[in-house]
């Protein structure tokens, strides 16, 4: 079986394997999962960087789709984008630390203030300014409101 896709209006449908990037394949997979979720019996879905190669408004839409998917089952998503992370029902922070000959991984569930700090770090880097923290707070609060 071969899947055909037209990624842009006016272009002919071509084999998915020939025209889709890794990020596009991830987003197509996500779209299929969102559509199939209403009939799915799979209790958990894991997406590892489904947002690769996107940013801005597109990342926010992907985050919204993941949040919607999470209303019907457990969804775990690895992301480096604040637009996606802000949409989550819960936010876990995972950190690796190398010590001598071993690597330790720590995971923590973030409370609201922890989420704001982590979103600000994702937005602005190491030094958190008042503006970056305000942007992160606004992003988190806006994403948690029910849709109109």
UniProtKB/TrEMBL annotation:
<comment type="function">
    <text>May be involved in recombinational repair of damaged DNA.</text>
</comment>
<keyword id="KW-0547">Nucleotide-binding</keyword>
<comment type="similarity">
    <text>Belongs to the RecN family.</text>
</comment>
<keyword id="KW-0227">DNA damage</keyword>
<dbReference type="InterPro" id="IPR004604">
    <property type="entry name" value="DNA_recomb/repair_RecN"/>
</dbReference>
<dbReference type="InterPro" id="IPR027417">
    <property type="entry name" value="P-loop_NTPase"/>
</dbReference>
<keyword id="KW-0067">ATP-binding</keyword>
<keyword id="KW-0234">DNA repair</keyword>
<protein>
    <recommendedName>
        <fullName>DNA repair protein RecN</fullName>
    </recommendedName>
</protein>
């Amino acid at each position: 079986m071969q899947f055909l896709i037209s990624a842009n209006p006016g272009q002919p449908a071509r084999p998915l394997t020939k025209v889709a990037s890794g990020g596009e394949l991830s987003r197509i997979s996500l779209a299929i999962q969102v559509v199939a979720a209403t009939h799915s019996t799979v209790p958990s879905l894991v997406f590892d960087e489904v947002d690769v190669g996107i940013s801005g408004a597109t990342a926010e839409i992907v985050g919204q789709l993941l949040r919607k998917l999470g209303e019907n089952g457990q969804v775990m998503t690895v992301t480096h984008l604040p637009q996606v992370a802000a949409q989550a029902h819960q936010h876990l922070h995972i950190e690796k630390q190398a010590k001598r000959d071993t690597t330790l991984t720590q995971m923590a569930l973030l409370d609201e203030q922890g989420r704001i700090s982590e979103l600000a770090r994702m937005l602005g880097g190491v030094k958190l300014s008042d503006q970056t923290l305000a942007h992160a707070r606004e992003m988190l609060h806006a994403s948690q409101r029910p849709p109109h």
